[in-house]
């Protein structure tokens, strides 16, 4: 069946490291080969072998409206005919900036970049530039892209492949990255006691999505806010996943916490390469050309990406987030029941339109508890679900994504597949 995917993967491996342009796609974490996608529409993707799957990856988050949404596709089509890059400002950059600022309470000004990695890297540079300090607090198992400073105990592909640290990252860089367990305010307070005067910022995924889905416990985000305020450090919310997903105003709106800086990506580009960072105007005005902190990009504010982003946010603003969340909560609860009935330990974490199945019997609140999940069970679950037409993240350290395009029949298909598989502890 997978004939053409296999053939392409063999060719790709000779040409592209691991045959993929981003490590998790290689499916090494689940002992599988990648599927090569021919096209995708709504909640489904179709491979080059002609097989169709219900897609619970959704490009790792950007496609909250589903693939090839007609309004987004038509915005991109009409933008193409107006030219694909100018290297000079255009109106759509202003319109998308207005939409982002309007949605996110803590964002007064925003700068567009081309990926989440660029967004977090630039936000950290700004935090270091304005505070005159070098250290950053990051949480074990959180992923903030692949900039040097963030590749210490990172989540996502770094966790999937069990890479402890990355060759090529100078030790001096990582020495300035201080680590704490997620949800552990005491550990963060200790870091401030030891290094308070040197800490430029805390960066946090306000809901963690890269060690599997892990929710902040009550008081955690507020505690981070208070520690930053007390010690003159900046709080950076990395909302690359949560922005426009946990609700239209992001985690900052949902939890009522005001970070100093916010990083964005994925959804705001509607499936085109976009990232952004924003925050308080007095901070953002320190960026070149109004300030001295340098950051730039040939393709930043790209007209196609801006058009896709505007169309996506316009549609999302009219979408019923609560209804989707209720459907996903019911799905997660039923999935938990179905899998538990097979006699395996299982915890399904969920919020908004995301969920993760952890094969463990303990609550998952940080990376240590996420790692108690049985990897062999996840692999077995992944493979059998894929055989039944359900495309899930090829790693236990990722979140499943549901889009507004997923129908009740799509959700039922996932549950039916889960009922039909065999798992044994
Ligand atoms: N931050 C978070 C929270 C992410 O999930 C990711 C990517 N999964 C990034 C940053 C990096 O974004 P990108 O892959 O676009 O560089």
TrEMBL record:
It is found in: Cytoplasm. Pathway: Porphyrin-containing compound metabolism; protoporphyrin-IX biosynthesis; 5-aminolevulinate from L-glutamyl-tRNA(Glu): step 2/2. Gene3D superfamilies: Aspartate Aminotransferase, domain 1 (3.90.1150.10), Type I PLP-dependent aspartate aminotransferase-like (Major domain) (3.40.640.10). It catalyses: (S)-4-amino-5-oxopentanoate = 5-aminolevulinate. Its main location: cytoplasm. Its cofactor is pyridoxal 5'-phosphate. GO terms for molecular function: glutamate-1-semialdehyde 2,1-aminomutase activity. Belongs to the class-III pyridoxal-phosphate-dependent aminotransferase family. HemL subfamily. Homodimer. This is Glutamate-1-semialdehyde 2,1-aminomutase. It comes from Nitratidesulfovibrio liaohensis. The lineage of its organism: Bacteria, Pseudomonadati, Thermodesulfobacteriota, Desulfovibrionia, Desulfovibrionales.
